[in-house]
Amino acid sequence: MLVSKFDSSENSLLFSPKVVAMLEQLKALNLANLELGKYSFEGIDEDDAFFIVMEYQTAKQSSVGPEFHRKYTDIQLLVSGEEQFGWVRVSDSELADLDSKYQYDAERDICFIKEQELPLEINQMKLGHFYLFTPQTIHMPNLAIGEPSAVRKVVVKLKTELLNR
C-alpha cells in the first residue's frame, strides 16, 4: 500500500506520466458535486483506467471481508466523511494460495477472503490523501470510525501494469 497527498508535487516522482495525468484530471474536477457513477479519463482507454464516484454508509464490520484484485490497482480517495480500512501486503505465493482457496470473480476483478485469514493493520483514511492498493495488498475498506457514517469516495481502477509506464 502506498499513501500520498492528493496534491503533492512528489506524485510526479512516484508514478508514470499517465498516472500523474489521471491525478491531475481528478484534481480539476469538483469531486464533492460530481454525480455518482463510473467515469473515464480523457485520453486513456477505459479498459486501462476509469474511476467511480460512490457514496455509502461505513460499517462497524465488513459484510464481505477483505478483498484483492488481479487486474486492477485501486487508488482510493476520500472526498467527505470518515473511514478506516484494514490492509496487509502478501507475497505472490500467498496470493496464489488465497486465489486457489477462494472464488475470484473475473468479471468484477475481485476476490473476497475471510477476515480471520490474515492479520490486518487498521488505518484511518485522511481527507486530501489517496491510498493505492496493488493486487498484493489485501484490503478491507468501508469501516466505521466509531458509529457508521456517510462517506463519499472516488475509487480509481488502474491496470496494474500501467503504474510504472
From TrEMBL:
One Pfam family it belongs to: DUF386
SUPFAM superfamilies referenced in this protein's UniProt entry, alphabetically: Clavaminate synthase-like (SSF51197)
InterPro entries (UniProt xref): NanQ/TabA/YiaL, NanQ/TabA/YiaL_sf
GO CC aspect terms: cytosol
Protein name: YhcH/YjgK/YiaL family protein
UniProt organism field: Vibrio xiamenensis
